[in-house]
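Box 3.1 A note on notation
Throughout this textbook, protein chains are presented in two layers. The first layer is the amino acid sequence; the second is a token string describing backbone geometry. Keep the layers aligned when reading.
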Amino acid sequence: MSSAQFIAADWGSSQLRLSLCGATQVLDERAGPGIAALQGRAPADVIDVAIAPWRAAHGALPLFMAGMVGARSGWVEVAYADCPADAAALRTGLHRFHSQDHAVAIVPGLACINPQAAPDVMRGEETQVFGALALQPQLAQGRRVLVLPGTHCKWVQLQDGRVLRFQTSFGGELFALLRRHSQLAGNADAGHDADAFAFGLRRAHAAASLTHVLFEARSRQLREAMPAAVADAFLSGLVIGSDVRGALPLLGWQQDACDELTLIGAPALCARYVDALAQQGYPSRSLDGAQCALAGLRALAID
């Protein structure tokens, strides 16, 4: 008898991560294109091809999916669950249907009115949040702030395991646009320069606003012979430093808060946020985003 119980799919804009899951462990993994890279292919067809070997070996297992697969541009648009929301709200909001004899469930995502009194949404990050709570149950106790760096960084306010509200930062996408489509840095393949990044953090902390320091990434190349690769890291420090400086006051988080902040995401990007938070006096720790996403899907599948 097969030990496989379900398939977890973390399907974002840029990547599809598939995990063949048993009761307590991952039995196999596969990857595929993100929702934004399907090039006209139907999501159902992409999934069908990707999991065909598993279906042949284990039959039509249930599929639990999170991320942009539930967006308007995804497989099926799934309505957001409104905040405040806990894990039960995600279970209630699961959109269920069948495809190729597989029972499919797509996580709904979350919507809120953010600290600036504007509508805000997330898809995929909510599964990471509740996966983090499954992995670290102490995070479901008291007041917490979780930070999910990425293309659109999410600053999430929790109270006793419920997402109260969150604030989205455009920093990740802004940095990508500036480095590829402006004259500020223009070196997308450069390695990370820690000293230049730290300098960018300091400049962001001292600046009136991000717009008043961004051009330094260009002017320091012209007047101080800053190499383009160094300017790239400096620009990253400016954007991330400004993000950190602006976000935490919105959530009412003080430097004397008793609990450290928790970062969830890709380790390399989280490390930059750890440095940025430390520079402004905030202790933090990091959890791997892929592991949290899988833990969130597992909690939904097995509960």
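The first strand starts at residue 6 and ends at 11. The chain has a mean pLDDT of 93.
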